[in-house]
Design the sequence.
């Protein structure tokens, strides 16, 4: 992706073009604003949650060019030219849940679910890259996402349920171009 100058005066905006959940957006944004704020406030996709806002909790995890990324740590202008998937992009257009959403639901993975968008996006990338992870690998790969409620066991069970539901081949194609509603 291109990296526009961020040395603009306060109040000045810069134009960016970004694709979010397969929809192209042309935006004029202040260089100081985070990608998370742009996604939530300018694009209106509030499924990306903000917890710590300094890169620790993982609640804001999205896929940027297929890779899990902290939306709170990126500037919006740095997403110019990027292909982004947020939690709203996981389900099918008719509302059918993404297999990982369905698995997490079946496993009752979350309680308050504030952390769930970040865990789901991290899990999409995890199962795309490692379709049959061990429990230790799941815990390691999701260790950048924090949950205050569950103790993590139910989340791990959700990931294992996702593997069981669809198998490695079905999950391998879901990492970067899914579309639809919110978890
Ligand atoms: S809100 Fe981005 S890592 Fe916590
Ligand atoms: S379910 Fe409440 S923070 Fe994770």
Sequence:
């Amino acid at each position: 992706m291109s990296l526009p100058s961020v040395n603009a005066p306060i109040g000045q905006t810069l134009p960016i073009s970004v694709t979010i959940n397969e929809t192209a957006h042309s935006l004029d944004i202040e260089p100081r604003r985070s990608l998370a704020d742009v996604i939530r406030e300018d694009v209106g996709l509030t499924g990306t949650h903000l917890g710590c806002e300094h890169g620790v909790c993982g609640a804001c995890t999205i896929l940027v060019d297929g890779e899990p990324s902290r939306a709170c740590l990126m500037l919006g202008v740095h997403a110019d030219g990027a292909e982004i998937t947020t939690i709203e992009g996981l389900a099918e257009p008719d509302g059918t849940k993404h297999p990982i959403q369905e698995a997490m639901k079946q496993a009752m993975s979350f309680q308050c679910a504030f952390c769930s968008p970040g865990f789901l996006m991290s899990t999409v990338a995890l199962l795309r890259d490692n379709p049959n992870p061990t429990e230790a690998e799941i815990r390691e790969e999701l260790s950048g996402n924090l949950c205050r409620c569950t103790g993590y066991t139910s989340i791990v069970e959700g990931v294992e349920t996702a593997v069981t539901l669809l198998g490695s081949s079905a999950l391998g194609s879901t990492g970067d171009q899914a579309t639809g509603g919110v978890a």
Summary: The CA atoms of residues 96 and 180 lie 8 Å apart. Helices lie at 35-42, 99-106, 116-129, 135-141, 153-171.
